[in-house]
Amino acid sequence: MNSTDYDIVIVGGGMVGASLACALGSSELRIAVVEAVALGDPGQPSYDDRTIALAYSSRRIFEGIGVWESIAQRSATPIEHIHISDRGHFGFTRLHASDMGIEALGYVAETRALGAALYEVMATYKNIELVCPASVGDVNVRSDHAELSIEREGKTQKISARLAVAADGGDSPLRRAVGIESRKHEYDQAAVVANVTPGHDHHNTAYERFTKTGPLALLPMPGKRCAVVWSTNSENVETIMGWTDEQYLAQLQQRFGDRLGRFERAGKRVAYPLALTRVKDSVSDRIALIGNAAHTVHPVAGQGFNLGLRDVATLAQVIVDARRAGKDFGSIDVLRPYAEWRKRDNQRVATFTDGLVRIFSNDFLPLTLARNAGLSLVNLFPSIKRTFIRRTSGLNGRLPRLARGLPL
Q: What is the maximum alpha-carbon separation in the chain?
């Protein structure tokens, strides 16, 4: 095999790409992380900091790669209870961490704090090089390596690696460059995200409320704040973004109700279009896809990033096991089991989230009665409730070692 500049090049230094680098940091593999956006001073925490919901299995993964303690010190609000309801109808479900004998169903972390924690840990590994700001142009796959053209500071350089990993988002340039096909289903919805302060303490409760125009989630944050993810039809987004804070809070109050008292303050609103993306294959020779480069799902139930983190844990395990066995971890024979392993989880989560959106967006009376009866059944029967929690907490199905709390 020819000598390469790196063993692995991770294209995309966001949370998923940085997580993979940290997971492989102790392997002594030569790793490059290529990130297009220049890293800036994170500054002081802001009221408007964006958040992400972490499943319980994601905590285990972060513990296994040595990042969780830093995340917890910066920002990790436990979700101890989840309240699910269908606006205007009788069905509801309450989930509690105690139902599973765990301390939290999940956590809410500020993305800025999560990113800072990952980069802090990544900087401790001498075998990881950050190439930033830089972007990937042409990609040529050879029999024993991938060669990538890197655009950096107006200059082009070529780097080679035994494996290139696409962690560069839903419109992944690396995925396109190597010709892996994807299918995208637009929901004709957008998520309007903001932080609010309610009148009452959230008591570490997350709320998922289904409405005619889409699901509405409120997630607990530090200092009595809540993160709001308001999914709505695309035609309504311009109206919502144009409201004054007072109008926004009044409309939010109308849709959510008074469980948290009167909403007192609203932060900056940001809108993101929603889509379901599937790829024809998540691997090819010398190439592997993770995170949004491999799949995007609706944000209902907060599954997207957690799905990507399980990609990280699985790919890291496949790479480490192949290296220990003296196998070429960039070959399609080694990468194929990763793709097959992840395929079932990806399909299950995509079907689950897509189904929730379709079922709860339909006003057909028999379906309305059936879904509300379903919510009530989950609430009444502990065995059904535990199954539901295992799925939403990322504890269902075949799990990689890191997601089971075991070292690589």
A: 66
